[in-house]
Write a structure and sequence with these properties.
Number of domains: 3
Strand order of the largest sheet: 1-3-2
Helix content: 25-40%
Number of strands: 12
Shape: rod-shaped
Strand content: 15-25%
Largest sheet: 3 strands, antiparallel
Order of helices and strands: HEEEEEHEEEEEHHHEE
Structural class: alpha+beta
Length: about 290
Amino acid sequence: MFIIHRISSILCVAYMWNILGIEAYVVAERAIQHLNPRAQYQGGWPLALSALNTTCPSDTPNQCSGNSVNPSCCPNGQTCVWGASQYAFYCCPTAADCEVAVTNFPRCADTTWNMFVQGSSYFCCEPGSIGVNPKTGKYDGLCEAADQPVPTSLLATMATQIGGATATSVASNATQAGGPNQTNPVQPNSSTSSSDIGNAISHWPIGTKIGIGAAVVIAVIVAIVVCSLIRRRRARMAVYSYGATVDQYDEYGNLIPQTGYRPGYEPYRRQNEGGVANNVTVNVVHGDQSS
């Protein structure tokens, strides 16, 4: 009887221990992992504004202005930092310069924006806007509305963000602009202005410019030589052609007057009966006319 009681006690204790262990396992809380904030955001490029609007949106209130560049905006909680080597502003999580991050891992301060190339730097526009590299005025990019006519030569090239969302263009405008990276909503004018030609030539490689310049110089020299040879040949033909005016002289050096025909003469010395020459007679023959 004592043995049976001991076995019952052991089984009861084991049962209660099992219940308490399961309950303890369920009640235990998961530990919170603290991630390094620097792995989430290190800096990005700001939001550009339009040529007529210089006020930052309410959700991107920090304005970056000055240094003769167009104003741009950083999201709330970020700091505008001027990069002298980039000649542009960028957004940093603190006042510390984050140039290394934004140049090696370019992305927008808000990855929902689209990023565009501007020289050695970048700028960002909200989806549906056109990225523009202005030809005159202040440096740095502009963002224009999708229905704003913009010359194709001023359209900025869209870039892919490193670690951010994939850049997307305005689908309804991509075909008319001539490529997937351009978002001009209006078909560009077919006529080419002199300024557009000069802008295109300025982007040619130096070797191409030197080659074209040498070819032009050689072409001019060849044209001058050919024209000179043609003039000389025509001058010779004029001298020896029929009816050309050529001074003719008799045997004493006297100029023979021209009568309009091609003159010819046959000088001979007429002698008197005594055999002494007393004068010279010149018979002038006018063409094939008989005397």
